[in-house]
Amino acid sequence: MHEQRWHDIVAEVQGTIPRLVEDFLTAFSRSGRYGDSLVSADELRLTAFEVLARISDVLVGAMDEEELRAHAQSLGRRRAHQGVELATLIDAIQLDFTVLWEHLRRAAGADQEVLIDHVTQLHSVVTMYNLVVRDAYRLEEARGQHDVHRAHARHLERLFAAESLGTLGIAEITRALNLDADCHFDVVVAHPTAAVELRALLHEPISSGKAFGHGVRGMFVAFWPSEQCPISHSAGRRTKELADISGVLFRNVTGLAGARAAAHQAPHIFDATGPLNQLTEAPDALWAVAGDALADFTASGMTELTQTIAELRLHHAPLYLTITTYLDCGSIKDSAEALHCHRNTVLNRLRHVNELTGLDITRPKDAARALLALHRTAR
Hints:
- The structure is a single chain.
- This protein is of the alpha+beta class.
- It folds into three domains: 1-160, Globin-like (Orthogonal Bundle), CATH 1.10.490; 181-230 and 238-282, no CATH class; 296-373, Arc Repressor Mutant, subunit A.
- It is built from 17 helices and five strands.
- A five-stranded mixed sheet has the order 2-3-1-4-5, sandwiched between helices.
- A hairpin with a 2-residue loop joins strand 2 and strand 3.
- The protein is elongated, with a radius of gyration of 33 Å.
- Residues 18-150 form the RsbT co-antagonist protein RsbRD N-terminal domain.
- Residues 321-375 form the PucR C-terminal helix-turn-helix domain.
């Protein structure tokens, strides 16, 4: 008895679907949804008609659920291409359900118990449609991101791998990546031992377009506009992970030419420093490059000095820490405060350093030699 009445109620509503569509559009327009997306008013009307008609057909067995699933998949993919936000799309489908339910309630009249008997069925159909739309949307969005990544990869490969790339080539890549020619970037180049780690750490910002990344000669190069750090400072753990990357940070380089130059300079830095203990700013790492250049001159003593300081790092940690602290601040008083010890302790340690290395790092010339050796890798 109830089943026949249910079929009659749904059939009555199906005969007024154009009115349901207008009710949906009125409520939808009041919400201001879809904003500046590519969905036209005509397409919105047609989609509402299709959704309402198909759901009502499934309710009375006039349509197979698989056909409804196919329609949901098509809608999810289409809206992903049109730039509609997923949450807004799901809200629109829920509005279809609200409008349909209201018209079913009116058609039922005094037979509201018939609706109560079938509300679970209606809810199940709409939920299924929502889930299929959501999955199709996310799959298409992911596919689109993959296509973007592939397109970016081609341009980034040219940027970093081309032996010769003039001003016109840089300009072409800048336009292809939709970047401002005058943009300044922060560039991180991970040592080959940390390339996989940096790629994984920046996967999300690279996927969302907040940063760019590409593998180069075993390293991984990532860059982003200088004023837009790809990792939120509120994400403490991830920020620390970036700071702990074995790599070099080039700040505020100019345009893609600057990013290309940073990627080409990094191998020379790594040759001089070896794997770094943390992300090191390029100006600090360049001491090692200069030290390597001097080491080619036998009389410089740079190779021996580098080895001595490396041994201090391994076997005399307090002395090594005193060297690095003093060279950072240039003051006995400030070094004592930073090391949490008495100034006389700092002086005694510096005298011991002088005995072991022959350097009085309170003198500018000796401090410069210490800096040159300090950042180099011992060979």
